[in-house]
Design goal:
By secondary structure, the chain is mainly beta. The chain contains 1 helix and 9 strands. A 9-stranded antiparallel β-sheet has the order 2-1-9-8-7-6-5-4-3, with no helix packed on it. The chain is globular, with a radius of gyration of 21 Å.
């Protein structure tokens, strides 16, 4: 019986090591040029579990390759900036101060942590976990 339990322990250890390696797949690399193609809309903005996506209804966003961003609603343009840091871990957006007078665009001003960036979707979360903010843009 002792040899069977020893063999079982070895097999269990080998299985645990093999299974833990399955989770080491590299995260997809964000495409830093993806935002510069076409126009975008906010399809998710949530803060502390509150869905505030409707605050962005009617806005169309353009991210130019020179780092400028434009939010357009009802023919009115608001200028801002955007960038993806060199290590492709942060998506920085600046549409001005976060205050009541600058809502909703000021809510986007942040250093967002990149979840994914593709040619059709940009998924971000606030780099401060306590705020529990999530932001998703989809291409129009």
């Amino acid at each position: 019986m002792k040899s069977n339990s020893w063999l079982s322990a070895i097999l269990l250890s080998a299985c645990m090591i093999a299974c833990s390696n399955d989770n080491n797949d590299p995260a997809p690399v964000p495409d830093p040029q993806a935002p510069t193609t076409g126009t975008w809309r906010v399809t998710l903005f949530s803060e502390r579990g509150n869905d505030e996506t409707s605050d962005f209804n009617g806005y169309v966003f353009t991210f130019d390759s020179n780092g400028s961003a434009i939010a357009t609603k009802g023919g009115v343009n608001r200028n801002g900036t955007w960038s993806i840091n060199g290590s492709s871990t942060e998506f920085n957006i600046d549409f001005g101060e976060k205050n009541d007078a600058n809502k909703p665009l000021g809510e986007l001003t942040d250093d967002w942590e990149i979840i994914s960036v593709t040619s059709t979707e940009i998924k971000l979360k606030d780099d401060n976990d306590a705020s529990a903010e999530f932001l998703t843009f989809n291409q129009n």
